[in-house]
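Hi L.,

You mentioned the student needs an example of a multi-chain input paired with its predicted structure. This one should do, with 396 residues in total across all chains.
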Amino acid sequence: MKATPRPYHHGNLRESLLHTAEKALEVGGVPGLTFRELSRTLGVSHTSPLRHFANKQALLDALALRGFERLSAILSRAVKDRGQNFNARLMKLARAYVGFQTRHPALCQLMFEAKHRADAPRDLMEASERAFSHGPAIFAEGQANGEVTDGDPARLSLVAFAALQGLISISTNGKFKGLPLNLLVSEIIERIIQGFRP
Amino acid sequence: MKATPRPYHHGNLRESLLHTAEKALEVGGVPGLTFRELSRTLGVSHTSPLRHFANKQALLDALALRGFERLSAILSRAVKDRGQNFNARLMKLARAYVGFQTRHPALCQLMFEAKHRADAPRDLMEASERAFSHGPAIFAEGQANGEVTDGDPARLSLVAFAALQGLISISTNGKFKGLPLNLLVSEIIERIIQGFRP
DNA sequence: TCACATTGTTGTCAACGTTAACATGCTGTA
DNA sequence: TACAGCATGTTAACGTTGACAACAATGTGA
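Structure written out for the whole complex:
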């Protein structure tokens, strides 16, 4: 009789939950992300999310996993132009990395926390490693072209990403002491490039 | 009649709460830190903490504030020997910083989160700035002695601390890909010192 | 067709943060 | 010293949350 009596089965609840959860996460952080509020938003009962995620942590892990996959895709796109020289590629990679973190701060924090948990799921760790493999890749190619000094590319990449990650960690609202992050990224990457010349 | 009927007034509840809370924080993180559990541990009623902290966030902020104060004291001690050259002082500072974060990971995470909140209390921001003032200080002194290149010492210090902070963020359990953090700190600081020669 | 797995609902529980009203003990001042 | 006022702790209660169990509706494959 009712106009559109919601069908008993939602049909796409898992995806809807993840989508809604990510928005809620960026608004209110982990404490502001509750099964019950998600359920209210999606018009389902307050325990239905448990059919798709064993508990809240499982939902957070699923969000983190997707985060790493999206990050990996973005970084992959940033370095795909193999025609450019090393400096340009590293700068693009750095901007993509910092840009993603600036756009999704809460998600990124979740991703790092999940990765650092002692009992982090296997697939999450693997996705994380895939995402962070783009750095060593371009360093290795830079070495092959004689543009970068010798040494373990993973180690060189670590220094660059550590600097970027630290900059993000120390900064607030995309700025550090009033200086926009973009500017500081350029400065740091240029200094690193300088230090990594053969 | 009872042997030691706990006096009605605890006498030192605020300090006891902070002390117990910090231990609980390192064990179970923020979710594992509850007023009710703290109260049980200290043998007081579950609302008595509210006489000392308006809400849970206020307790967390107080923990973060003390964290910054302790960090500042530790960093201050690390650089107090003005007789040493710049390289030695920077390395000591770096080790002290990384050591503190390694020893108190949950507290440090709390400190950064608190500092980054839009409505972070004034005193907390000031304590944070005091803690991070030791870096620029030794860079400035290094410049005065002709040991460090020109430029805004705060900016130079930022690069160094960003690298350290990022290393910590990326690492897990004091290691990164099996390499102990100590080793990587040395490597990064030496590279930075190299890059900051006049 | 129909047994069975999947998905969603209802009802319930313990734990939590928070508030209000009340009890107790300390302290400064007359 | 007396006692008023305030700081500190307690009790009771409310609403929210994550989680579990039992049940209902739906989809699916033999």
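You could point out the following to them. The beta strands of chain B are 175-176, 179-180. The first strand of chain B starts at residue 175 and ends at 176.

Best wishes,
N.
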